[in-house]
Backbone:
């Protein structure tokens, strides 16, 4: 049952990353993330939903090839309060640009309060 909840929350986050409508994105981020979420990404660390929103706006939607699309590529693996999932970022034409794994921590009421993005493959 936990994995279903975690998959729903992760999918809300992924949908928020793909949504260009700012109001819809805010709604999805509010459903998926705690207000004080800690967001670790390849560009640094941010705190709060606004930091996640800024990353989506600047990096995901601000890509030089145009707004890309984030796709969850694996099931959500959820041992306890932590979960991980694989993803792929595609160009507007569907070409793969980057892939990786996100690790998220969920609160008892099902909000993501920590996100760690691992972009690229380990060698």
Residues:
């Amino acid at each position: 049952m936990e994995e279903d909840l975690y998959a729903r929350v992760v999918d809300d986050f992924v949908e928020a990353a793909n949504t260009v409508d700012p109001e819809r994105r805010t709604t999805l981020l509010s459903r998926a993330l705690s207000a004080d979420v800690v967001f670790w990404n390849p560009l640094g660390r941010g705190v709060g939903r606004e930091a996640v929103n800024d990353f989506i706006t600047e990096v995901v939607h601000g890509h030089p090839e145009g707004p890309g699309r984030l796709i969850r590529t694996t099931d959500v693996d959820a041992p306890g309060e932590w979960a991980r999932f694989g993803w792929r970022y595609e160009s507007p034409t569907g070409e793969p640009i980057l892939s990786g794994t996100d690790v998220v921590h969920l609160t008892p009421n099902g909000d993501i309060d920590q996100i760690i993005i691992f972009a690229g493959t380990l060698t």
Residues 2-119 form a domain with the Nuclear Transport Factor 2; Chain: A, fold (CATH 3.10.450.50). The chain has a mean pLDDT of 91. The longest strand covers residues 96-106.
